[in-house]
Amino acid sequence: MKKRKLGNTGTTVSAVGIGALSFSDFYGSTDTEKSHAILRKALDLGIDHIDTSNVYGAGLSEERIGSFLKDQGGRKNDLFKIATKAGIKCGDDGRNLFDNSSEHLRSELDKSLKRLSVEQVELFYIHRRDPNYPIEEVAGTLAELVKSGKIKQFGFSEIAPTSLQLAADIHPVGAVQSEYSLSTRLPELGLVQRTRELGASLVAFSPVGRSLLTDSPHSFEKSQSIAFLKGNPRFLEPNYSRNIAATDRFRLLAKEMGNKTASLAIAWLLHQGEHILPIPGTRSVSHLEELAAGADLSLSESDLQAIENCLPIGWAHGDRYSVVQWNGPEKYC
Hints:
Elements: E1 3-5, E2 12-14, E3 18-19, H1 32-45, E4 49-51, H2 60-70, H3 76-79, E5 81-86, E6 88-90, E7 96-98, H4 102-116, E8 121-126, H5 135-148, E9 151-157, H6 161-168, E10 175-179, H7 191-198, E11 201-205, H8 220-223, H9 227-230, H10 239-257, H11 261-270, E12 276-278, H12 285-293, H13 301-310
Parallel strand pairs: 3-4, 4-5, 5-8, 8-9, 9-10, 10-11, 11-12
Antiparallel strand pairs: 1-2, 6-7
């Protein structure tokens, strides 16, 4: 597996990582055994970047990673560069609330370290911005956590390029996490550029479009059984059928090029910048192999143009989030 820099501390990670939201039941039922199988295969493939959060399954994702690491004995601290997050709380009405206070972040980090069975994580993200706390103040809190030795770097999820600059003026920011794929190109309107300029990684979640950019996209019936997708505009009719028809062209192109569709989607993303790190999630060992294979694909200019012709920017029908799902991410364009 090829390596890329994570942030600006000299740390290197696999070009393709794993988004461990899939270790909870977010996209369908799973269990500890299946999650451990993914982690074992990741090690076989040379994948060492694991991304999780304190709210993924209310800590379940972290616990499953932690139980795997406990089984590795003295090797546990050397296997993965782990990123986790804090800043989201569930309100009494079930809606997300945000807390970027020093007390909350410190407390949640300690809980995450315990669940993960480690004393330090590589990267600690603010999962969502809390407007009650200036980002400069939050960056100061995170800088103190770096000094404490509990985290090596910090980052932010779903923030605007301007917010990144304000935080970086206080302390170097290791990474910004954002949805980025052939179906979601918004980061190209400033975030790709600003992260590169500041030496921060752009960690791309949902790099295969929540299954649309794979050989086996979720059926409409399956998507309606998944709480998040059930309300997502791209998976509601008539958008769903239109998006399947559009991505059928991409599936055909991938086949003509001799690749799995997910592999080609990952390869395209990696060709958008050396500082970009996709973190696809999966509950399938075979799918993980397809995703990892994207790191080995070298695309020519004609290949990239063929992909652009197939899925030109703006092709997707429907917003990437519903009105409710847009609660938290910063809009900047």
